[in-house]
Automatic annotation (TrEMBL):
<dbReference type="InterPro" id="IPR036928">
    <property type="entry name" value="AS_sf"/>
</dbReference>
<feature type="domain" description="Amidase">
    <location>
        <begin position="21"/>
        <end position="412"/>
    </location>
</feature>
<feature type="region of interest" description="Disordered">
    <location>
        <begin position="93"/>
        <end position="113"/>
    </location>
</feature>
<dbReference type="Pfam" id="PF01425">
    <property type="entry name" value="Amidase"/>
</dbReference>
<dbReference type="InterPro" id="IPR020556">
    <property type="entry name" value="Amidase_CS"/>
</dbReference>
<dbReference type="GO" id="GO:0016811">
    <property type="term" value="F:hydrolase activity, acting on carbon-nitrogen (but not peptide) bonds, in linear amides"/>
</dbReference>
<comment type="similarity">
    <text>Belongs to the amidase family.</text>
</comment>
<protein>
    <recommendedName>
        <fullName>Amidase domain-containing protein</fullName>
    </recommendedName>
</protein>
<dbReference type="InterPro" id="IPR023631">
    <property type="entry name" value="Amidase_dom"/>
</dbReference>
Length: 431
């Protein structure tokens, strides 16, 4: 179990030695941790809930993503705490405790890959593995002030990872610096080292930045100056992403009317509808995966998780075909918008991490706006990186860049190219 000295990040201390001690390996002598959703041979995969751990046997093999990291020379030092059944973006766990956010100790760390992000942010490991379905890498990366990468959907094997909702599940990772983020990514994605490719355009989604309580103009101006300095101002474009999505994803129309009034307030209608479609399909797939177990075991679930699981158990296949159409259409629309080497810039989240134990009712409007932003990559399957920018009013700030499906290596290289200039141009404090 976790101790206070490790920020509550670790669920279980496990030492897995690297497959080789060859100093030429890309991750030689580095340490990492894994979310307690990945199978490790001989250990029970706990899925964030003691009733799950009690009713499941130890894994008989290790997840391929973990094996790939071990073969690259890194040492695994433990499994990390996560939100129960991966069904939250807060990072609070009533059974195992809430990992302490090293960047904002009185705030939530973000979930569901909470412990993995905290372990990196607190310097307990060099990098870590998590999963991202609705935002479970991007959110804690943003809240803990570190890098987080959600890869293109289906590009990294999720074998040996407990499914949450397969249409969205991805294996993601965290690092404190952009160079290591790239190195880990190239191992997981099995990519060769190649020279960075110049982006063809950087599109700033102005309406998305207007959702943010952190002054969006500060980030937008910093992005613009960075692009001008590195590549030339002709690459910069500005777009109303909500209007573009509404015009180019016709299947969304059936979800617009279903969006709750509180979700529409201070929100972008088409992206709120996109979020609605994502959560509908997520609930349906969660029920298919785990509904029978929940009904049979009646697990003790924490606040918020319990309500979401109950909603999932009531899910039907109504409108599932429309959800799948939305997925196909938005990927095509964003691919057309970006082209081969275009990049889309959005806020990772609409604001800083909420305070610990904030009532669920208070969080609803924030959650709605958060999922509007998170669903862009979630539903389209595009790759997305959350980049830490420092602190504003003593709280961590981030920005996200997205690229077309399969352009993960290009996006990782771009982060290395642009990061230092971006930090200089935005000029936020690191303290």
């Amino acid at each position: 179990m976790a101790t206070d000295s490790d920020n509550g990040a670790f669920m279980e201390k496990i030492i897995l030695q690297p497959a080789s001690s060859d100093i030429q390996l890309p991750l030689h002598a580095l340490t990492f941790a894994v979310k307690d959703i990945f199978d490790i041979d001989g250990f029970v995969t706990g899925f964030g809930n003691p009733d799950w751990a009690r009713t499941h046997s130890p894994a008989t093999s290790t997840a391929p993503a973990v094996l790939a990291i071990l073969r690259a020379g890194a040492k695994c030092v433990g499994k990390t705490v996560m939100d129960e059944m991966a069904y939250s973006i807060n990072g609070e766990n009533k059974h195992y405790g809430t990992p302490r956010n090293p960047s904002a100790p009185d705030r939530v760390p973000g979930g569901s890959s909470s412990g993995s992000a905290v372990a990196v942010g607190a310097g307990l490991v060099d990098f870590s593995l998590g999963t991202d379905t609705g935002g479970s890498v991007r959110v804690p990366a943003s809240y803990c002030g570190i890098f987080g990468f959600r890869p293109s959907h289906d590009i990294i094997s999720t074998s040996g990872v407990i499914p949450m909702a397969q249409s969205f599940d991805t294996v993601g990772w965290f690092a404190r610096d952009h160079e290591l983020l790239n190195r880990v990514g190239r191992v997981l994605l099995q990519l060769p080292q190649v020279d960075p490719i110049r982006p063809s355009q950087l599109i700033i989604a102005e309406d998305c930045f207007q959702l943010s309580t952190t002054p969006g103009n500060l980030i937008v101006e910093g992005l613009a100056k960075s692009v001008e300095k590195l590549f030339g101002g002709h690459l910069l474009k500005y777009a109303n992403l909500g209007n573009y999505v509404m015009e180019n994803v016709p299947s969304l129309k059936s979800f617009v009317s279903k969006v709750n009034v509180e979700e529409q307030e201070y929100n972008i209608p088409s992206l709120a509808a996109l979020s609605s479609a994502m959560r509908l399909l997520q609930r349906y797939e969660f029920k298919s995966n785990h509904g029978e177990w929940v009904k049979a075991v009646k697990p003790d679930l924490g606040p918020g998780i319990s309500e979401r699981v109950c909603e999932a158990l009531e899910a039907t296949d109504e409108n599932i075909d429309a959800c799948l159409s939305v997925k196909t259409e938005i990927r095509a629309a964003l691919t057309e918008l970006l082209g081969d080497f275009g990049v889309l810039a959005i806020p990772t989240l609409p604001g800083p991490p909420p305070k610990l134990q904030t009532p669920a009712s208070t969080l609803e409007v924030f959650r709605a706006r958060a999922f509007s932003l998170l669903s862009i990559a979630g539903v389209s399957g595009l790759c997305q990186v959350s980049i830490p920018l420092g602190k504003y009013d003593s709280l961590p700030v981030s920005v996200s860049l997205l690229a077309k499906h399969g352009s993960d290596g290009f996006l990782l290289n771009l982060v290395e190219t642009i990061y230092q200039t971006l930090r200089e141009q935005i000029g936020l404090s690191t303290e």
